[in-house]
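User: Run a structure prediction on this.
Assistant: Running it now.
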Amino acid sequence: MSPLNYISEHIFVAASGEKGRGVFTSSNLKKNSLIEIAPVIVISKKDRAHIDQTLLHDYIFEWGDQRNQCCMALGYVPLYNHSYRSNCEYEMNYKQQIITVKTVRAIKAGEELTINYNGNWNNAKPVWFPMS
């Protein structure tokens, strides 16, 4: 049986300039390194309408094959900052209700770990907030 939660001992949360907080690594990481497996709380379309009126809107992920639900990931997943050329990517497993984060390239100690909020690590589609 595969684990339903895991956080690498090498990652930590710290200040990330104007972005608030972010996720960083304390050691060098190789390409395809497993960073995190986070369980999620699946939220119905009806309940999402309420969440969209709160600050939590910025921390949820669309969920399900039809994207008619959303989820709140536990662990550090909500704290990864966005990059159009991120150094990590995430994968959703709807059946197990988890999000897995892995590196897409080698990453140096002290570097911030980022994901692309559009899903694919190099997707350039504009996100819903202004990028500086």
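The beta strands are 6-7, 11-15, 21-25, 34-43, 61-63, 69-73, 81-82, 88-93, 98-103, 112-115.
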